[in-house]
Automatic annotation (TrEMBL):
Gene3D superfamilies: Lipoprotein localisation LolA/LolB/LppX. InterPro entries: LolA/LolB/LppX, Sporulation_related. It comes from the Archaea. This is Outer membrane lipoprotein carrier protein LolA. PANTHER family: SPORULATION PROTEIN YDCC (PTHR37507).
Length: 338
C-alpha cells in the first residue's frame, strides 16, 4: 500500500466528520420520477435537509482503500456539532490517530506525534452539519439496492463542471429517512469504499470531545503582518531587515516552547525568507549535510536542497536564517546584507 493510501483514509475521515455525505445545489435527471421514483436531485435535496436539520451528528464508518497492490481498512468514529466543531478517530491494523477542531483550534494526535494550531477569526469553515460543496453536482438515480438490510437509493454523482477531474462517485441513501449508508469513489488508481455502520442525529455531545488533548497537543498560533514595523512590534526579538528586497509579509508563529518570525521579501522576482526564532537550535543540531560557512565573521551552517539554499546561525539563543532560491553563495550574500 502506498503512503498516499494513509492520506486518503484521513481525507475520508474528515469527509465523514464534517458531513460531506450530503450534497446540495444539484441538477438531476427527472425521467425516473414519472415511474414513481424521485429524481437524483430530489434524493440529494432530501439528504441535505436531513443533515442540515441536525445540530449534532455522531457515527461510525468502515473505510477500505484498495489499489492494484494492496488493500487497507480502517474504522472511523466521528462527531460534528454546531458551530464548526468536528472530531474523528481513525483506527487501522497498524496505526490510530485522532483529529478535530473546537472552532478555534484545529488539532491532530497520533501515536508518537501531535499537532495543534489556532484558527484565524475569519477562517472559512464549512458549517458542521450543512456541508454543501462549492461545485454543483449532477445526480443520476441508478435504482435501489439493499445495504446491510436497509433499502437505499443508488446515486451516481458527477460535477457539472466537466473540466474537473473528479473520481467516479456513487452514493447509497436510505429510501425512508435519507441517511447515507455507503459511498464509493474510484479515481482509476485507488478505490475507496465507505460503509456507514451507525449514524445518530441530535445527540448530546460534551464540548470536551472537540477540544485538543491538553497533555498531547501544544497549540501553535500564527499571526500575519503586512509591514516590517508591525512584525517587529509584535516580538521582543530583534528582527533583521533586508533592504535589498521588497517586504511582502511576516508571519509570527508561537508555540509553548518556541517562537519564530518568517519575513518574506521579493528581490527582483526571487523569493527571500528571513527567519528569526527561539528554541530552534535543538532541532537544527541534528541537521544533516550541513556545510560550515562564515557570515560577517559569524560561524554559520549552510544546506543546499531542491534548488534552495539555507544559511543559519545561533547567537544568544536566537537563531537567524536565510532561505533563497539559489546557491549557498547567494544565501550568504543575502545574510551579509541584513
Amino acid at each position: 500500500m502506498t503512503a498516499d493510501t494513509g492520506r486518503r483514509l484521513a481525507i475520508v475521515a474528515v469527509f465523514v466528520t464534517i458531513g460531506l455525505l450530503a450534497a446540495g445545489a444539484v441538477a438531476g435527471v427527472s425521467g425516473l420520477s414519472e415511474m414513481g421514483q424521485p429524481s437524483g436531485d430530489e434524493v440529494l435535496d432530501q439528504t441535505e435537509q436531513r443533515y442540515d436539520a441536525a445540530e449534532t451528528i455522531t457515527g461510525t464508518a468502515t473505510v477500505t482503500v484498495t489499489n492494484d497492490s494492496a488493500s487497507k481498512t480502517a474504522t472511523v468514529e466521528y462527531a460534528a456539532a454546531e458551530p464548526n466543531k468536528k472530531w474523528a478517530a481513525v483506527t487501522s491494523e497498524n496505526r490510530s490517530y485522532e483529529m478535530g477542531t473546537n472552532g478555534t483550534v484545529v488539532w491532530a494526535v497520533g501515536e508518537n506525534e501531535s499537532y495543534g494550531r489556532e484558527l484565524p477569526d475569519a477562517a472559512a469553515m464549512n458549517d458542521s452539519t450543512d456541508p454543501v460543496p462549492e461545485e454543483n453536482v449532477t445526480a443520476t438515480l441508478r435504482g435501489t439496492a439493499e445495504v446491510n438490510g436497509e433499502s437505499t437509493y443508488v446515486l451516481d454523482l458527477e460535477p457539472t463542471n466537466e473540466s474537473l477531474d473528479a473520481p467516479n462517485t456513487t452514493l447509497w441513501v436510505d429510501t425512508d429517512d435519507y441517511r447515507v449508508h455507503k459511498m464509493t469513489t474510484d479515481d482509476g488508481t485507488n478505490r475507496t469504499e465507505l460503509t456507514v455502520e451507525e449514524t445518530n442525529f441530535n445527540v448530546s455531545i460534551d464540548d470536551s470531545q472537540f477540544a485538543p488533548p491538553a497533555d498531547r497537543v501544544a497549540v501553535t498560533s500564527v499571526e500575519t503582518y503586512d509591514t516590517y514595523d508591525a512584525a517587529q512590534s509584535a516580538t521582543d526579538m530583534d528582527l533583521p531587515e533586508y533592504e535589498n528586497g521588497t517586504f511582502e509579509e511576516a508571519r509570527y508563529i508561537s508555540r509553548p516552547e518556541s517562537t519564530a518570525v518568517a519575513q518574506q521579501y521579493d528581490a527582483d522576482g526571487e523569493n527571500v525568507t528571513i527567519l528569526t526564532a527561539t528554541g530552534a537550535s535543538s532541532y537544527l543540531d541534528d541537521a544533516e549535510n550541513g556545510t560550515a560557512v562564515q557570515v560577517n565573521g559569524q560561524n554559520a551552517t549552510a544546506i543546499e536542497r531542491d534548488d534552495r539554499a539555507v544559511v543559519y546561525w545561533t547567537e544568544s539563543e536566537v537563531t537567524t536564517g536565510v532561505v533563497v532560491e539559489g546557491t549557498t553563495d547567494e544565501a550568504v550574500a543575502v545574510a551579509e546584507a541584513l
